[in-house]
Amino acid sequence: MIAPETDRMTATTQKRKKKTEVRTPALSKRGKGGLVLLTSAISGAVLGLSAPGIEVWWLAWIGLTPLLLLAVSSNRPRQAFLRGLLFGTCYNLVYQNWYLGLSPLDWLGFNAWQGWLLAGAAWLIISVQQGLIIGIFAAIAKALPMTGTFLPEREKSKWTWPALVTLPLLWVLIVNKLGNAHYFLGVPFSMLEYTQYKQISLIQIASIIGGIVIGAIIVMTNAVIASLIASFYGQKSVAALAAPSRTIAIHQCLAMGLILTGMLAFGFYQSSNLNAPSDIPLSVIQGNVNIDMEKDKRRYSLADLLARQLSLVGKATGEICVWTESSLPVYLSRESLVARNMAQLAQRRGFDMIVGSMDADASGRHYNAAYGISSRGKMLPTVYHKRYLVPF
Q1: 103-148: per-residue pLDDT in tens?
Q2: Which residues are within 8 A (CB) of 181 and not within 5 positions of it... i.e. 6 or more apart?
Q3: Regarding beta strands 153-155 and 158-162, do their DSSP bridges make them parallel or antiparallel, or are they unpaired?
Q4: At a CB cut-off of 8 Å and minimum separation 6, what does 322 contact?
Q5: 373: helix, coil or strand?
Q6: Are the CB atoms for 194 and 50 separated by under 8 Å?
Q7: Do 282 and 324 touch, CB atoms closer than 8 A?
Q8: Tens of pLDDT, residues 187-246
Q9: Exposed/middle/buried for 312, CB within 10 Å: 0-12, 13-18, 19+?
C-alpha cells in the first residue's frame, strides 16, 4: 500500500525538478542579455571620452572594438541593432555633452528651468538620433557574411567579405554619408576623426586622403584589434572577425602598425617643411547681437552692425582680425561701398582680415561665406562657402 504513494511522490518531485531545470537557464539567459546591454552602454560612454573637450583621444583607436564584437556575436541583426543603439546613444551623450551648455536661454525668452529642459531635450534627441545610425551599422554588420581576412573568400555557395575592409567602408557609408546626409537633417558633430584634431602629425595625411578616410582608418584599427581578440578567444559567436590563424592575426596587427607609422612619418615630414611660424597672433571680433535684431521692436540695420563691429576693432591686435560668421549679413561681393571700407580698414590697421558674410554662386545658391582681405587692402578672389548646414 505504501509503494504506490511513494511512486507518486517521486514522480511529483521529478516534475518539480524538471520545471526548475527549465526555468533556471531562462533566467540566466535574461541576466546575461542584460549584462551585455549594460556592457554596450558603458563601452559607448567610454568611447565618448575621446571627444574634443574631454581629450582622451587615444580611446578612439580602441574604443569601437567592443561594438564590433558585440555586433557580430549577436543572435540576429535585430539584437545587434539594439546593442548598437545603446552603444551609439551613450557614446553621443558623453561626446555631445556641450548641448547642456546651451542653457540659459533667457535671450530667447525662456526662464531658467525651461532653458535647461530645452537644452536637455536637444541633447537627448540628437544622441538617440545618432545612436539609431550606429544601431543600423551594427545590424548590417551582423547581417553581412564576413571573414577575418583582407580578401573575400568563397565558402560553399556564398561569398564572405573581409571584415577589416568591409567594416570601415560600412561605417563611412552608414554613419558619415547616409545617416548624416543633408536630406536626412544630419548633425555630424561626433565623427570619430574629429577626436584627433590635436594630433597634428597624425592628421597631416588628411591633405591627401581627407578626414573621412582618417575615420575609416580608425575603424579599421579597431577591426584589427577585434580580429586579434576573436582569433585568440576562439568562440564561434565571433568567428566572423577571427583570422584564419593566430599568426595571421598578429601579422594583421603589424601591417596596421606600419600604416599608422607611415601616416606619422608623412605628418612629421609635412610639419618639418612648414615655413610659417607655429603661432600667429590674431583677434576675433564677436558683436554678440542677440535675438532682438530679428524683432520688430529693435531691428539692427547694417549701419548699426558696422558701428558695433568697428567699436571693437580698436581693441584688436595681432596679424589677423577675424569677424565671425554672419558678422555682416549682406552679400559683401555685391556691396562695393562696404567692401571698399573694409579693405581700407585692413590697410589702415595693417592686418589681414577674415570677414563672415554671405555669398551666392553662379547657379543662385546662397551660402554663409568667409571673405579674405589682405593688409594691403586687396579683397582675395576666392570666397569660402560653408560646406555643410545643420539644423542647429
Answers
A1: 888 767 788 888 899 999 999 999 999 999 999 999 999 999 998 8
A2: none
A3: antiparallel
A4: 282, 283, 284, 285, 353, 354
A5: strand
A6: no
A7: no
A8: 889 999 999 999 999 999 999 999 999 999 999 999 999 999 999 988 888 999 999 999
A9: middle
